[in-house]
Structure formats: C-alpha cells, structure tokens
Write the structure tokens for this entry.
Amino acid sequence: MAIESVGTGRPQLLPIVGLLLLETSLVVCWSSGFVGIRYAIDHGPVFLILLWRTLASGVLLLPFALLIGPKPRLAEIAKHLVFGALAMSGYLAGFAIAIARGVPTGLVALIADMLPLAIAMLSLPVLGHLLNGRQWVGLGIGFLGVLVASVGSLHVGEAPPWAYSMPVLGMLSLALATLLQKRFASSDMPVHQSLCIQCFAAAVIFSAFAAGEGGIAPVYEWEFIIGIGWLVIVATFGGYGLYYLCLRRSSPARVSSVLYLSPPVTMLWAWLMFDEPLSGAMAVGLVVSLSGIVLASR
C-alpha cells in the first residue's frame, strides 16, 4: 500500500493507521464470535442462539437503517438477502454446530478462518481470476496445516467425524458471499443498512431450524441473555460491521488474511475461559497453515 506525501513532505500516515486499527479490532471481535458461541451453547440450543443473535441484531439496527442513509432499492435489498443467507446463515451455522458437537473452539476458528484459501479457489468462477503456481502451493500447504491440527485434536475433542466438515462448509459459504458482494454489491448502501437486512435474512432461516429443534422462545436465564448480548454487540456489530468496513477500504485477499490472525486469539480465549487444551499438533498446524496463507495471498 503506497503512502502518499503531503505538501510538507511528511508521509500521510492517518489512513494507514486507521486501517490497521480497524483490522486489529476486527481480529478481536471476530474471535469473540467463536468464544461467545462456546459460552452460549451451555445455556441454550444452538439454532435458538443463532436465531436470537441475528434477530436482536436486526431489530436494534432497524431504526438506524430506516432513518439514516438513503432509501434502499429493492434490487439492493434482494442482493443483501442473498448475502445474509450465505455470510451469516451458512457461516454461523457451520462453526456453531461444530462447537456444539464438541470440536475444540480453537480448531473451529482455524478451519473457519481458512477464508483466503476458499477465496483463492472461488476467485476463478466468481471473479474470473486465475491462480498461479505459488497460490496453488500455498493452498496445499494451508490444507496440510489444517490436517495436522485436526488429527492432533481428535483425541482431545469428543466430536463425531462429520462435525469437522461443518466449519469447512461455513467457510466456503462466507467466501462465496465475500466474492459476490465485491462483484455485485453497490457501495452506496451504508454498512448498518446492509447488516440489518442480512441479520433479518439469517433470522428467518434460523427460525425454521430453531422451531424444529424445540421452539423459538428465548431462554429466560441471565447466562443466555449475557451470551446473546455478547454475540450481538461484540461479534455481530463489531465483527461483521468491521469486516464490511475493511472490505470496502481494502481487498478481499487482505481482509481474509487479517482474519487468519483470529485462530491463535481464539485458542488463547478458549484455554483461559473454558480450559480447552492447547495441543502441540494444533500449534504446528497453525504455523504451517499460516505459511500457506501468506504464500497464497501475496
């Protein structure tokens, strides 16, 4: 990223510092989503948690979406309904189900945040971007790192084998939404409006699954309320809001690469809060995958 000079000859650092602050906040808030789900599943069914996370987020954003910003066109609303189904329903359900089934939280974050690899793979069909040899090597190294971390975690987790595929599917869903949004979405709609639409789209989908899981009524316990509040304020408003802000100011490759810093943060949170083990294989897999991500995303 080039640094432009002003008349005094000093570099204009404010835009770069601002972007770095946004990206640092994004890592913290994005990691909180995994930890928040891990906390909340002890106090309610997984789809009920996801329903009230997205519904409460949409309701809180609705007055601002109606009163602040341009009036959304129907075509733009339709686009963000699709993005919400992919970026929220698909992604959140993928890693939440995995955590609920016993996959270690840090490993879920590692798999789910292999987003740069998914974006690289989907760039050809969505954006028409071809991968070069270095990127293919990076994809292979990143995948190898996930395998190392996954195999090492099998003896510390209690999840069925199929549960390990759920964050992969969720990650692919978010990658597709990211590329589609970069290609088709207009930047005219403010983030709070687009996020509101996407939250309601996800809430409708989650309500159907929550009804089949036992009902859509919330759990009237403080632990459930605290968990939903955490997921709404920090993970949804902070995580998704910062994600879309960074995506508008930077490229999908850079934003998804920044998100890859969240797995070690998530692993540390899970160890401190829930005493989840930090295995050597998970650490090795993290380092191997990170090297593949750097290679593929340059």
In short: The CA atoms of residues 51 and 131 lie 38 Å apart. Residues 1-11 have pLDDT under 50 and may be disordered.
